[in-house]
Amino acid sequence: MTETELPEDDRALAGEYVLGLMSMDEAAAFKARLTREPRLAALVLSWQEDFAGLADEVEAVPPPAKVWRGIDRRLFAGARGPRWMLAGIPGILAAALAVMLVFFPVVTGVQPPANPVYHIDLAGDDGTLIFAAGFDGETNELFVRPESGAPDAGTVRELWLIAGDNAPVSMGVLPDAAPARLPVSQDIAAQLDGAVLAISVEPPGGSPTGAPTGPVIATGAVETL
Q1: Do residues 129 and 210 both lie within one domain?
Q2: CB–CB of 220/132 below 8 Å?
C-alpha cells in the first residue's frame, strides 16, 4: 500500500495532526501509530515538507514580544510543554510548525527544559526578539536561545537580573549563536519571580565593573508558566 492508497480518513488525520487541529490526547494516540506504520509516518513527513515550503515565500517579520505571547496563550492555553521555544516563528505557519516542534523536536547538543518554571522574552525597543529563555527548576539552570542577530566584533552580550530596586546582578555572558544553559545560584533563583532580565553589550569576558557598562539592547519580564 502506497501513501496515496492509505485510507482517506488517515490522510485527513495526518493533515489534522500536522496542522495542530487534534486535542493533546488525539495527537498522542496518532503519534504512537507513526512508530508502527511507516507509510503513515511518510505521509506526515510529506505534509510537513509541504507546509515548510510555504515559508520560503513568507518574509520573516518577528512580531513584538508582547503580541507573540498573547497569541501563544490563546493558542496553547493549558497545554503543558515547552511553549516558549516557539518564540520567533513567523507568520501563518506558526500553528503548524508549533506542532512539528512539539512532536518532532530538533535534536541539538543543548536541550531546553520540558516544563520550564519561568519564561522570558528578551526583546529590543522595536519589539525584535533577541533571546528566548526558560528556567529549569529541576536543574537550576537558565536555558537561553539566541533568536536574532549576533554581537558586534569585539563585544559580548551579558545577562542581568533586575529584582525590584536592587542593583543589577550578572547572570553570565550569553552565547553568540547556539543555545546554552547558564547555572543559576539558589539566591538568584529565589529572586526570579516578578523580576526583569536585561542584556547589555560588554567587552570580551563581560563587564569589568560588576555592573552594566554598555548599552542595554533588550529587556524582558520573568513570566510564570
Answers
A1: yes
A2: no
List, for residues 124-165, the tens digit of each pLDDT value: 988 888 999 999 999 999 999 998 878 989 999 999 999 999
- pLDDT tens profile 95-110: 444 444 444 444 446 7
Tell me how far CA of residue 115 lies from CA of 94, 99, 135, 193, in angstroms: 20, 16, 9, 16
Same domain, 127 and 195: yes
Percentage helix, strand, coil, to 5, in the chain?
35, 25, 40
Q: Containing domain of residue 189, as a range?
A: 118-224
The number of beta carbons lying within 10 Å of the beta carbon of residue 114 is 12
Whether 13 maps to a domain, the answer reads yes
Residues 124, 94, single domain; the answer is no
